[in-house]
Amino acid sequence: MRELIAAVRRGDADEVRALLESGADPDTLDGTDGLPVLCLAVAAYDKPVAEALIEAGAAPLRRLPDGSTPLLRAVDAGSYALTNALLRHRVPLSLPDREELLARARTRSEAGAEAELRRRTGLTGPVERVRVVDEEVGWWCEQLTLGELTVRDEHRAILTSMEARYGIRTPFDELVERALAHPDRDHVVWSDVVFTLGRRVDEETWQWSRDLLNHPGRLYRLLAADLLLSLIFGDIAKGDAPFWDRGREFVPWAEQEQDPEVLAVLLHAMTHDSAPEIEAVGLAYLAHPDPAVRALVPETLEQSEDGRSLVRPESLTAVLTLARDEDPGVREAACRWLGHYRGSEPEVGDALVALTRDERQPIRICAVSGLAYRDDPRCVEAEHRIGPLDPELPFDERLMDVWRYQRRREDAEGS
């Protein structure tokens, strides 16, 4: 089985799968330390290889000479992704295994990654720190190395997800403190806390989150806004979204919030509701210095299902102004809104034509698509301004919109 060991060490998931399909034992022992190859994948934070081994029958609960298991080692390593991958094993955990796992995660969470690293190594020197981004979901964590041992600071996310998995309703305040220990919306711990509380979709969690908006600390308010946004999205898996149209409740906070990051999240949450007071808040921030705030203004404006009848002249003027904004993200947001607006005002089509000459290709694509969606014949000539596409990027379905426009014209002329 040397080939399997070598493939695992290389991190070659495709080769690992091929060898396993050819009959290689997923519980093969590494000749160096006598541990199953699943432990090699765990130590390397190699989720694809670990998943291949698990799918082939590797045992995450196999008791090792030191009393641990591959699953416990994933927890010790602070790997949220690996822990969840190993927990998807076909054999459910017994109650003692579950209690052991939760206790291990809780101990590691309370200790903290650096303290645990120093305890396990016995070393006192400087810790090497590296930011690691999960390209699949965009979350990040900090990876700490001291001597020959490496851990990641995801233990609080591991604990939070396991508690939710096993029906433990962790107190709201405790989850808040876990998130704030990693004060970044994209950190895996913060993100998992928001995800976990967002799936509760109950009035109690809604009120606690809303009350948190009154906190003097910006990080508390940012977390509150993030939680409320998550609650509005609801539990997608169950199709439960009872707060979808309650964004108008945030108007008093949005009117007085001074922190641009908090304000942007609040505006995002408000855009899923539709009310005159929400539009008024959006228009008030038309010239806000932060582009992330300005980019959300179009989504706060009222529209009917036909994209036309509720749009006020001042609202359309605001979006046309944003279409000339210095920030590309703001221009793209305005472009999307204009492309779906059904009004016949000539300045809308003219603004989209101007955006087909934008320096950013995504905006040019959006503008051409918007013209085609509006049945504006200028989309045909403007399509040539999109320019060569990056072959490494996935195909953008909007690139077919001019073709669809031409088919509609041909069908209309032939009828």
From TrEMBL:
Lineage: superkingdom: Bacteria
The keyword RNA-binding appears for this protein: no
PROSITE patterns found in the cross-reference section: ANK_REPEAT
ANK repeat boundaries on the chain: 1-31, 66-98
Pfam family, one: HEAT_2
This protein's UniProt keywords: ANK repeat
Alphabetized SUPFAM superfamilies for the sequence: Ankyrin repeat, ARM repeat
Protein name: HEAT repeat domain-containing protein
Taxonomy of the source species: Bacteria, Bacillati, Actinomycetota, Actinomycetes, Kitasatosporales
